[in-house]
Amino acid sequence: MYDNKHKIISIVNQKGGVGKTTTCIALASIAANRGNRTLIIDLDPNCHSTSVLTNKKIDITYNSYTFLTGSNYKKAIKKTAKPNIHLMPAVDKLYSFEKKHGKEPLKSIVLNKRLEKLIKNEQYQYIIIDCCSTVGALQFNAVTAANMVIIPAIPDFLSLAGFNQLLLTLRRINNKYNKLCNYYLLFTMFQEQLKSHKSVVEWARNKIKDITFKNKIPFDEVFLEANNHGVNFIDEMPASHGSQSYVSVYTEMQNLLKES
Question: DSSP labels for 135-146?
Fold first, then answer.
């Protein structure tokens, strides 16, 4: 369906508060800084990416929900303050899509089809999808559309409790649609001083290294401050430990995409 010029990356985890939106915006910002035209599709009814990237004056009559349900994509795509990043904003009405289709999510896969015309007519090198934490129709649509799924997770065993279930979901979708969607675990909010964090990272290196990013994202208060004030930390605080770590992850992501 997609050629090598278009990379569709879904940021997914069934647990909230693990850095999905931060990862989405960081990778999009780095891609944009390197001259790549990038679209963020916010499929989270909590609208986190939308809140960070837009102001209240923006017209969101057309959005990711109307796009999923058949409206023209052109009306749903909004400009952001950053020239190379466009946004398809979320609205809380996405909850109604989830409620309607969540019990049989595999029967409500429409994002693939909706993206065909968009990709054919628009020159986006990257499309990055910020997804909700609920396992259901929205998450299934995001995963089915993707070339790569990135799973941000805090490196503790409680946060990884649902990881195996998510892997089963990804494999189920791959088998159902006879496609190869590569998925990788990305450790976020890593704290070197915590033995539990180091133990989980060591476990991943030994057990699932083929599907785990080598680079980790440290806990950095820069992320919290930036999100609270609607600031792009990649641009405003490029020397921060967190920003530099995301640059390393971006490079690793590019290499993994080339290998797939």
Answer: SSHHHHHHHHH-
